[in-house]
Amino acid sequence: MTRLKPLPLIHQQRGVALMIVILIFALVSLLSVGMHNRQKTFIQSASSVSAMSQAYEYAMGSEIYARRLLKDDWDNDKSANEFVDGLDQVSNAIVLPVDQAALEAQFNDMHGRLNINDLVDVGGSPNALMRERFEALFSRLALDTLTVDLLQDWIDDNQDVSGIDGAEDGEYLNMAPAYRSASQPFMHSSELLALLNVDQKEIASLRPHVSMLPRGWGMTNVNTASAEVLQSIVKDLPDADAERLVEQLQDTPWKSLQEFANDPVFKGKTIDQTNLSVYSNFFEVATRITLNERKVRLRSVILRNQSDGSMQVIQRDQGQKYLITKEKLGL
Ligand SMILES: [Ca+2]
Ligand SMILES: [Ca+2]
């Protein structure tokens, strides 16, 4: 029987060296794949951050442009000595291609609405006229779970429940999780979601007709009001008349409150002109930028000072979807 000769030592060493080389190669491959993946993620995140900040700058550009338009409009009104803001400047959204991105923007007139915060006076007492207008609006919109009492209690600085539908801390502390009412003016429309047992669909139907402006600043511009808001101001105004008025207002705004009150359609009706105007000071500019399939949204509330036309951005918000709601016009 032939005995197998052991391999020479030099062959054994070569085998071990080969294994080590393969192992090192495998390790290096693993490491380089890891490095490549990390690098790829880093490049992707850097390009995403860069695209987002570029898109945000475009959105800020839209806000600056909107301020310029508002200033030009104020200058024109000043030289004509007739401050009038109509639907013409707020009727459409614009679409504009800007270097690799698409910009969509629209103006909303925050004065064509009823200011919820004016349900309570600066002094803290309930405002009877505003309450009357809100009651008319709520009944026109056929709201059931959302009531004027709920709105008033949310912002008034007391714990007395107003009316049968009101709710104060006692009711909110029974919720799970428990919380308290704000006892201060609404700062944002999302607060409506915190009201006691309110149907979200009703909030959606109320939103376009109300604003949350500082107390005492929220006059309603009758030229940019919705048919429902006009009906809350002018008692017993039939639906058809209100809708026809809004149609007419697209290109012929009332030049003064006197002209508004004397409109033949209101014949025989008495209109309380308190807190009404034919011009606006608060505007919302909604912008949506699409860049590299990413979207950046910006909602800015601008105060245009009536006395000198100066502008002030009082709120910026990047969190809201569905900002562009109006028919789009390409530029
Ligand atoms: Ca109360
Ligand atoms: Ca309260």
Describe this structure in words.
- By secondary structure, the chain is an alpha/beta fold.
- The chain is built from eight helices and ten strands.
- It has helices at residues 9-80, 128-140, 148-155, 169-172, 200-206, 227-233, 239-249, 257-261; strands spanning 93-98, 101-109, 114-115, 210-211, 220-221, 276-277, 282-291, 294-304, 311-317, 328-330.
- The strands form three sheets. A six-stranded mixed β-sheet has the order 9-8-7-2-1-10, with helices on one face. A two-stranded parallel ribbon has the order 3-4. A two-stranded parallel sheet has the order 5-6.
- A hairpin with a 6-residue loop joins strand 8 (294-304) and strand 9 (311-317).
- Helix 2 packs across helix 6 (227-233).
- The longest helix has 72 residues, at 9-80.
- It is elongated, with a radius of gyration of 31 Å.
- The model has no long low-confidence stretch (mean pLDDT 90).
- The structure holds calcium ion (2 copies).
- One calcium ion (CA) binds at residues 153, 156, 158, 160, 162, 168.
- Residues 153, 156, 158, 168, 181, 183 line the site of one calcium ion (CA).
Q: What are the salient characteristics of this protein?
A:
331 residues; 38% helix; 16% strand; two-stranded parallel ribbon; Ribonucleotide Reductase Protein R1, domain 1; six-stranded mixed β-sheet; Pantoate--beta-alanine Ligase, Chain: A,domain 2; elongated; binds calcium ion; 8 helices; 10 strands; 2 domains; alpha/beta
